[in-house]
Amino acid sequence: MPEPLLPLPPALDQLLVIRRWLELTLARVDEKINIVRSAEEERARRRPLPAPPDWWIEYGIGATRQPDRVHTGACRITGRGRAATRESALEVLRTMPSVIACPLCRPDSELGLLDS
Questions:
Q1: InterPro entries this protein is in (predicted)?
Q2: Per-residue pLDDT, 116
């Protein structure tokens, strides 16, 4: 059970002093919040980005969400999809004729599919 609040004084001048003290305290708290937020944002900016995955499988839209394209992890035009292993990227390109290798990053070349 929470502790009861302290009673407030009945005099207007005392209540106004308490109100002003609360305003000043709230302003100090808001200032500290802004300082801490800024420091956290600065730390987040300095934190290195995670390494991109080696391979990326892009999925189409709709209920089935079938694989649509395969990309290298460094490709800048990837869309909806998720990180993939080398084996899963190879399997998708070999077994699903409708899936294409991205013409920009050429994962089929990096995977060695064009050499065979």
A1: DUF6233
A2: 47
